[in-house]
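Standup notes
- HV: blocked on the assembly model, inputs below
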Amino acid sequence: GAVVSQHPSWVICKSGTSVKIECRSLDFQATTMFWYRQFPKQSLMLMATSNEGSKATYEQGVEKDKFLINHASLTLSTLTVTSAHPEDSSFYICSAREAGENSPLHFGNGTRLTVT
Amino acid sequence: KQEVTQIPAALSVPEGENLVLNCSFTDSAIYNLQWFRQDPGKGLTSLLLIQSSQREQTSGRLNASLDKSSGRSTLYIAASQPGDSATYLCAVTERRYGGATNKLIFGTGTLLAVQP
């Protein structure tokens, strides 16, 4: 089945530094990838939609200059948390859809970010 | 604004029991509904996807139903096993202008514990 690989699975960084998270579709091409954020005991909130070869579409309230998204190829999207602060600590999950509107979304295993 | 609610928030059952998880949504204009499983600290695994025109989908011991008019979906798990212990999330894809949006709106999940 379709596999989405997310790396790293966890990262600890100091406040003020930047962290890059990678999301790869391993056996299919994904023109669109999605980035979600999940706080403890809460549901997933869509942050942005990443489109290959064009700018990402951000949800209301998500700072595009803080959460930089790059979708340079059909199999790779990256999320960079710039100048991270402790309140950015969260679980970040990417997902990708195979071709076709009726295709299910496949999710990565998530990245646990802790900013100290 | 679409809101997705899941009841109960947590459920504990003895091994072998059949159980039902509930999901409700406020706007019936959905494109599809998807059930996911999330293990602690992990990403999401897609279990079942029901198109808006369908009433139910089955996969092994899982059966998901959809009643769009009443804004409800159920996930039925037969003969539960300890390995079924996880958080179960439902999510709807909204319909706009005859097609699907890219946005999945998640419920807050049901934490299931199956006791051996």
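- HV (later): unblocked. Chain B touches chain A through 25 residues (CB under 8 Å). The mean pLDDT of chain B is 92.
- Next: hand off to the docking folks.
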